[in-house]
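Example 3.2
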Amino acid sequence: MNDLTYVEAVNALFTQLPMFQRQGPAAYKADLSASRLVCAALGNPENALKFVHVAGTNGKGTVCHMVAAALQQAGHRVGLFTSPHLVDFRERIRVNGECIPEQAVVDFVGRWQASEGAWGTPSFFELTFGMALVHFAQSQCDVAVLETGMGGRLDSTNVIPAPEVAVVTNIGLDHQQFLGPDIRSIAKEKGGIFKDGVPVVLGPMRPEAQSELLAAALRSSSEMHFARDMEGEASAHLHPESSFVTRQNLSTAMATLKVLQARDWAISKEAVQSGLSDYAAITGQRGRSLPEAGHQAGTAQHTVLLPSSSERTIPRPSRTPAEGECHRRTAPGRPVSRSVTFLRGLVQAVFLRTTWALLPISREPIVSP
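Structure, written as tokens:
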């Protein structure tokens, strides 16, 4: 019998596993063997699922939420795996907008602890991704939308079989000690999620990043699609004062949905409209109007700042009882302080905006030919 409480289970994940945010390079693994071992110990749940795989520097989380919302509005049962969480660990793993139940977390952690090392020595992210796969498979999801954690080629999420579509948002200078010193090398790592014959969607990005990803797509015989081709249609969903970043994310999500439609996924125009206009409420997304935690602001189009009141076209969702339960903790046993969370994000946004204004480089967005 598993006597763990939810608080104890989450505390075990955070304290008993290697974690990049806590240990830095010591927690990094330069191969996928640990992730594959966890999946094998779980019965390879990834083989029972279909996926949308999204990599990039910033924006990838929001694109995941947008795509998941439209798929959900089309009547599909959708798993969503994103990171990091804002308040409660369970935000990372959702099905149709609902966080994984506390008991499911408790049961999974108890199963891992009882394995007595049979699962190897996974990191926090590797074990969390295994938990997500199990939950999605048990929930009989039609599709799971996955946000990579870091990079792509060696990211734990890259153990999945060929997805329905692979997506790369913008590319900036992030985690250079692991992904490489420049945009080209980082783009090459993120393009490591491309698989043979799987269509690829590229968001707006620097030409040198795009050239590396085009070369990777050529090697995998992947059909190419570009977010810029959807900018006209995306504008119909936007407030006139919407930020450049919002426009990028929306056009990338719409290009992804168009690819899924071409692959015979039933997604009506109405589902796209309602999903994209209310994606935050539908998926329970919180905090992504601030700079994405743990990611870099390499260029202006990589920085998501707080929108003005006139720009916020997507209403802040009212909290349902289930979602309130999902967001009741900042850490095991610690009560939430929304004021502190908001102010911290506001300070980050002001700092990034000020830093960007001082950089001696062009502010014009780079548009690929």
